[in-house]
Amino acid sequence: MDIRHQLLHAVYTLAQRQAIKDMTVNDILAEAEVSRGSFYKYFADKYDVVNSYYEEAMTEIFKDCDAFTWQGIFTKMTTYLEKHRVFFRAAFQNEGQNAFTQFFRDYLNQKFAAIITTHSSHQALSTDERKAVRFFVDGFVTYTRQWILSDTPQSATDLGYELHLFMPEILCRIRLDLPVTTPTF
């Protein structure tokens, strides 16, 4: 594992033992067993490495999602979050700087709009469609956050299905040119 990934893995590991807001660069260095100079070669500060971990997680979640339906995308996402529930519980509890909730909301707003414009005849979203994406993402993030923070016995597959059911009609009417497959995990 290269040094950058050692540092990202250290954030993941530490978040399972302590609050993200309480992590320090020294904690990350000790967990990763790398020098301070190596840390600053890749990251400006602890906020930068934490945000980089969030971005890596989203990249992993959305990898190969072009082959899935909306429900498949939502199920893949909730399955990933469930598999890493301890980390994402810490991430969702973190407020203020490095708040995953806001990062997740911003990321999904951009990603869902990009999926629509990339995989449909839409060149751009209408004002109402942009509002619907924001509205849906706000509910999606809130509902998913509550699911992660509680010990709800609901499966990731069931949650993915429900999130798809809650998708606004204006967005459901947009035909995506995605193959009709469901991910296997």
Describe this structure in words.
By secondary structure, the chain is mainly alpha-helical. The chain has two domains: 1-61, Tetracycline Repressor, domain 2 (Orthogonal Bundle); 64-180, Tetracycline Repressor, domain 2. It is 67% helix and 0% strand. The chain has helices at residues 3-15, 25-32, 36-42, 46-62, 70-83, 85-93, 100-118, 127-149, 156-165, 169-172. The two termini are 24 Å apart. The model has no long low-confidence stretch (mean pLDDT 91). It comes from Levilactobacillus lanxiensis. InterPro entries: Homeodomain-like_sf, HTH-type_Tx_Regulator, HTH_TetR, TetR_C_Firmicutes. This is TetR/AcrR family transcriptional regulator. Residues 24-43 bind DNA.
Describe the SSE topology.
Blueprint: H1 3-15, H2 25-32, H3 36-42, H4 46-62, H5 70-83, H6 85-93, H7 100-118, H8 127-149, H9 156-165, H10 169-172
Helix pairs in contact: 1-2, 1-4, 5-9, 7-8
Number of β-strand runs: 0
User: What is CATH's topology name of the largest domain?
Assistant: Tetracycline Repressor, domain 2
- For the termini, the CA-CA separation is 24 Å
List low-pLDDT spans: none
Radius of gyration: 18 Å
Summary keywords:
185 residues; Tetracycline Repressor, domain 2; 10 helices; 67% helix; elongated
Summarize the structure.
It comes from Levilactobacillus lanxiensis. This protein has 185 residues and is mostly helical. It has ten helices and no strands.
